[in-house]
Write a structure and sequence with these properties.
Elements: H1 24-34, H2 40-49, H3 52-55, H4 60-63, E1 73-75, E2 82-87, E3 90-98, H5 100-105, H6 107-123, E4 128-138, H7 144-164, E5 168-175, E6 184-194, E7 209-214, H8 224-227, H9 247-262, E8 266-271, H10 276-288, E9 291-295, H11 308-313, E10 319-324, H12 329-338, E11 342-350, E12 354-359, E13 362-368, H13 369-372, H14 389-393, H15 406-414, H16 423-426, E14 437-439, E15 447-450, E16 456-463, H17 466-471, H18 473-489, E17 494-503, H19 510-530, E18 534-540, E19 544-545, E20 548-549, E21 553-563, E22 579-583, H20 594-600, H21 612-628, E23 633-636, H22 641-651, E24 659-663, H23 670-675, E25 682-686, H24 691-701, E26 705-711, E27 715-720, E28 725-730, H25 731-743
Length: 747
């Protein structure tokens, strides 16, 4: 072996490369695990695998709270993606991942390779990707740099997904100054397969060949995992850490991988994602209880003079590592040759439980697999309530002036970029490719994908509210789960499983870990209450630049199942003279609302309270009513409150249907009644003949409701009892504000 270095600081690396970021304590632990000092290649491997991005060393103790078992769960956390049984011999594989830092440094490639990575996580399980969604956060679009980042990220998502032939069917986008230096790009992918086609990522069978397939390896993406585990500094300095994607090669890789899995010769397979060959080899060996020996001189390369270290931590895209049954290498080679992809036998499975890296005949690194995986550091970081917490939770509602014109207040909210139509974005996505999209962007509260040849469909929603999490992390986390589930029942789907992407600041700051722990606690409690297991996920920490961190931003993606699907339920009003009913109760809750943020420039107060029993009751009513076919429309009442929900149901109506509404706010302030964001509320329209059945379901569930008015006409008219007309806007006026709110920045 090469001579070990004496310290972590003196590594003999090229001057343009950063030192491997392990702490002094971690370095001493490495020495203890090896029984000697590591050489430069070994230290590179340790620093990648022990990075926050790969090891989850700061979050692991909290993630144990999540429920991971359930009726539908086949594979939970620990695999490349979660897998659930959806009946009829079919399974769904899904996951959400972040590509935050790369998307700030190089927005097009950062976003594009985020899409590529999550696609590989799905088809490495043997599932064909059928849908993409995304959850995005950016700074205000008035700032040119933010517009540039936003435009290029959208182009990257569209460019990769469209070329792959996978529809982007939904998502969410929010804007806030706090994300100007730390935009968030979270990408969700769903795939389907027959149950017997699922393949896992374990390296089994001593002597079986370890095979490299896909694109050649270059120097792009080196130190990508460690870059994503530190605060951002100068973006130009880190441009070399961003991977470069090629969706056309990935399309070939997808087809080749799915074909080779059909032969039965694949024992295990894993994407070379973060930390590249290092993570794929060590994690596969860990799952299989084996070792792996690799000769880097056999790795296909596209750059001359690459060192063993560079081969091991390169994050070049469109590459997979697989273990095949011994003697069937020729079958693998023939398939990948047909698809014009590289294939090379670069090693073998061993019984010694060591990761052994050779360069021809020389052993350049040898590390126990457990040292890189199960024995990696786990930290219980200090936690402390932020000093500002009491201040941001305080809100003197008497100091908030009511709008002079409620019509103008509603128009302003509809035109704010976070609430406005995202058509400018989703028109760039191909959301109909594969012809499975039943409800796509802008249609309903969740996307719906049919499973051809069956009467089943899958619904997907991603959700998160960072303002709520800032003001009260527990309720913010719980509401993220509740709202995503609520969105699913609004299209008639039963929530069955969840994936999450937890975006936070520097975990070494106690107030960040305080909010992280409480968000996880709230999410876990909600998952327990709603019986929605967490089957996969991702943690993205160090979303800070020069000490300024993001708001706590947990994002959840929930999968729902529709059995016996007929006409899908959507958000827009359908027919005139139908009854509009609000299921749930409205309270005087303005804290954390878009109304406060947009019209009063305040992000403070206490967020709305989530009562689990009420939420379960409301969801049960709507899901049952949807299955019985008595609802014409259903729409979650969330950001912007009741007035925005009513306006959106008019705007999304196929016939631009208006509504005539009469409200009795009682003792609640009119602005709180119209724009407050009380939880556990769903707005529905129903034919008059079905109203009694709906009210019977409501009574049975023991939840509140209000009959608000009827559909019809070409305007939204809202009257408050005892007051003059509160809101009168034509549907065309609302559409104009709604459609231009985001698009106007890109004229």
């Amino acid at each position: 072996m090469t001579d070990p270095q004496k310290t972590a600081q003196n590594q003999g690396l090229p001057p343009e490369r950063p030192a491997h970021p392990v702490t002094d304590e971690e370095y001493q632990k490495i020495v203890a695990l090896l029984g000697r000092e590591p050489n430069t290649t070994e230290l590179a491997i340790f620093s990648a695998m022990w990075s926050e991005h790969c090891s989850y060393k700061s979050s692991k103790v909290h993630l144990k709270r999540f429920p991971t078992q359930g009726e539908h769960v086949l594979h939970g956390p620990g695999e490349n993606a979660g897998v659930v049984d959806i009946g009829g011999g079919w399974v769904a594989a899904f996951k959400i991942e972040s590509h935050n830092h790369p998307s700030f440094i190089e927005p097009y490639q950062g976003a594009a390779t985020g899409v590529g990575g999550i696609l590989r996580d799905i088809f490495t399980m043997g599932a064909r990707p059928v849908a993409l969604l995304n959850s995005l956060r950016f700074g205000p679009l008035e700032v040119p740099k933010n517009r540039y980042l936003f435009e290029r990220v959208i182009a990257g998502i569209a460019g990769y997904g469209n070329c792959m032939g996978v529809p982007t069917v939904g998502g969410e986008i929010y804007f806030n100054e706090i994300y100007s230096k730390n935009p968030l790009v979270n990408v969700f992918c769903l795939g389907i397969a027959k149950k017997e086609e699922i393949v896992t990522a374990a390296a089994g069978g001593v002597g079986n060949p370890v095979i490299y397939v896909g694109s050649k390896t270059g120097r792009d993406g080196i130190h990508g995992a460690t870059m994503a585990s530190a605060e951002l500094g100068q973006s130009e300095e880190k441009r070399h850490t961003v991977q470069v994607g090629d969706p056309f090669t990935e399309k070939l890789l997808l087809e080749a991988c799915l074909e080779v899995m059909q032969t039965g010769c694949v024992v295990g397979i894993q994407d070379m994602g973060a930390a590249g060959l290092t993570s794929s080899s060590s994690e596969m060996a860990h799952r299989g209880g084996t070792g792996i020996e690799i000769d880097v001189s056999k790795v296909p390369s596209r750059e001359p003079g690459m060192t063993p270290e560079e081969f091991m931590i390169s994050e070049s895209q469109e590459r997979m590592l697989l273990v095949a049954k011994k003697g069937r290498e020729a079958e693998v080679e023939a398939i990948f040759k047909k698809w014009d992809l590289d294939m090379a036998v670069i090693g073998k499975v061993t019984e010694d439980r060591l990761l052994t890296i050779k360069n021809r005949d020389e052993i350049v690194a040898q590390i126990p697999v457990s040292a890189l995986t199960s024995e990696a550091p786990v930290y219980e970081r200090p936690m402390a309530t932020p000093k500002f917490q009491e201040l941001v939770q305080s809100l003197n509602i008497e100091s908030i002036q009511e709008p002079k014109s409620y019509s103008e207040a509603l128009r302003t909210l509809l035109g704010s970029p976070s609430l406005a139509s995202k058509e400018w974005v989703y028109r760039q996505y191909d959301h109909m490719v594969q012809t499975n999209t039943v409800v796509g962007p802008g249609g309903g509260d969740a996307a719906v994908i049919r499973i051809k040849g069956t009467d089943r469909a899958l619904a997907i929603s991603v959700d998160g509210n960072s303002t709520y999490c800032l003001l009260n992390p527990y309720y913010g986390g719980a509401i993220a789960v509740a709202e995503a589930a609520r969105n699913l029942v609004c299209v008639g789907a039963k929530p069955i499983a969840l994936t999450d992407c937890l975006n936070f600041g520097n975990p070494e700051r106690p107030e960040v870990m305080w909010s992280f722990a409480l968000c996880v606690e709230g999410m876990s409690e909600a998952c327990d209450q709603f019986k929605i297991p967490v089957v996969s996920g991702n943690v993205s920490l160090y979303n800070e630049t020069r000490g300024l961190g993001i708001y706590p931003t947990p994002v959840v993606g929930v999968l729902g199942l529709i059995e016996g699907m007929k006409t899908p339920l959507t958000a827009g009003f359908k027919e005139p003279n139908e009854v509009i009913v609000l299921i749930g109760e409205t309270l005087e809750e303005l804290g954390g609302s878009e109304y406060l943020k947009v019209l009063h420039s305040q992000e403070r107060g206490y967020p709305p309270i989530l009562h689990f029993e009420k939420e379960k009751g409301v969801q049960k009513v709507v899901l049952t009513a949807a299955r019985e076919g008595i609802l014409s429309s259903a729409h979650d009442c969330s950001e912007g409150g009741l007035a925005v929900a009513l306006a959106e149901s008019c705007i999304l109506s196929p016939t631009s249907m208006g509504a005539m509404i009469a409200l009795d706010a009682g003792t609640i302030r009119p602005d709180a009644y119209l724009f407050g964001e009380s939880q556990s509320r769903i707005l529905v329209s129903v034919p008059e003949r079905s109203l009694s059945r709906l009210q019977a379901l409501i009574a049975e569930a023991g939840v509140g409701h209000s009959v608000l008015g009827t559909t019809g006409g070409g305007s939204l008219d809202i009257r408050l009892e005892g007051k003059e007309q509160a809101i009168h806007l034509s549907v065309s006026e609302m559409k104009e504000a709604y459609s231009r709110g985001l698009a106007k920045y890109f004229d």
